[in-house]
């Protein structure tokens, strides 16, 4: 053990030397942008390795204490990068509990949403924090404190979120960013833009342009059904808006001019055989982060702060955006990141629109919901009732319980379910019944609201126009 500790200490010490070297190297030499990117990535990796090895954040000029221990919950041997794969197109993990979000925060260089931030949001808005915040479903952020600082000084901001419309079918997991964005819009009383990246889907999937655009309009109906305020919300399809807004296109081109092929290759993993549409697309997802992309809303102001609630796999786009922003004279967008919604079959399996059994879809009937959960929801329970009563179930890997953390609003009830399931008092069938009875009315209400969304309503939301708010 002593030997291991010493070895850790030496490795950590060597890392400190390497870090010092790189910090020195970075701050004293003027080198080309591409090389800086490589160096920054190396520096980040060294910092990650350092934290992994010592359990502490790297502080310049502060060598690790002699008694360094790995505080990584005993998971010292798992590869920090091998286990989870997270990018805008693929998310995979081999862990039944799902992606390790603490590691992802270190890897992406974002900040954890601590209780302090949640308390602050409560204080500033005067509203009980949304369950997604209370339960760490939105778990990571960039610059949220800054947004609140400004808001307290009566400087408002706007929200930007989006969706890639790859099919007509949306499942409950797709609603997570919209449910949360709606709450943010309500408690802060601010405008919102929603980008439907039908162009992205055309570039990445084997679909016709008309199909992608149709999916965008169909998805917009489900999004509108989440209850957004038509006087404060602009929903747009890239195919429609890019061609109609010179200001938007100008920002796209400004961004394109300030990002090199090497950078997007590094961030997104593009290869020489990817079409040039893919390579330039990140600029289109970045542009709505800047308020003057919407002159009809912000009247040409370029300094309105943007806050982006999204799933963490979208972060690469906004790391790029934040890197470009100061170079083209715009504020960096702030971010709130959500964790992933698990497939019914378990957190390490993929949810797919082509497999109706992998999730609950917004078009499912009460009977389908019941059958899917009973037949397909991965259970953390024991094989027999006797064993389950004796040893209890494992809520950490149980998909029905995970879904309840997303959709059951009552904290006390959720905690009681967790205790009872863990102790064995609550059986898997009973847990599933609670989930079924939570989702059936929720989906039915969504379907009812969607039915009310007419073509005319969609047109209203999707027409570039002034919105009603004070900044
Ligand atoms: C995502 O994963 C699939 C299959 O694992 C692979 O074929 C595809 O190239 C990956 N896409 C990207 C953008 O990495
Ligand atoms: C913000 O606005 C409110 C109401 O208009 C006002 O009472 C308050 O003094 C303002 N705060 C600052 C810091 O300007
Ligand atoms: C939107 O604004 C219009 C005109 O001011 C108003 O009549 C309508 O009630 C508003 N709608 C909502 C949902 O607030
Ligand atoms: C979904 O599950 C049902 C019943 O368990 C089965 O009959 C059906 O074939 C499955 N569908 C797919 C696409 O796997």
UniProtKB/TrEMBL annotation:
Biological process (GO), any one: tryptophanyl-tRNA aminoacylation
InterPro entries per the UniProt record, alphabetical: aa-tRNA-synth_I_CS (IPR001412), aa-tRNA-synth_Ic (IPR002305), Rossmann-like_a/b/a_fold (IPR014729), Trp-tRNA-ligase (IPR002306), uS15_NS1_RNA-bd_sf (IPR009068), WHEP-TRS_dom (IPR000738)
Superkingdom of origin organism: Eukaryota
Region (Disordered): 62-81
The enzyme's E.C. designation: 6.1.1.2
SMART domains associated with the record: WHEP-TRS
Domain WHEP-TRS: 31-66
Transmembrane segments: 12-32
GO cellular component annotations of the record: cytoplasm
MF terms (GO), sorted A to Z: ATP binding; tryptophan-tRNA ligase activity
UniProt KW keywords: Aminoacyl-tRNA synthetase, ATP-binding, Ligase, Membrane, Nucleotide-binding, Phosphoprotein, Protein biosynthesis, Transmembrane, Transmembrane helix
Protein family: Belongs to the class-I aminoacyl-tRNA synthetase family.
PANTHER family: TRYPTOPHAN--TRNA LIGASE, CYTOPLASMIC, TRYPTOPHANYL-TRNA SYNTHETASE
Entry protein name: Tryptophan--tRNA ligase, cytoplasmic
Biological source species: Oryzias sinensis (Chinese medaka)
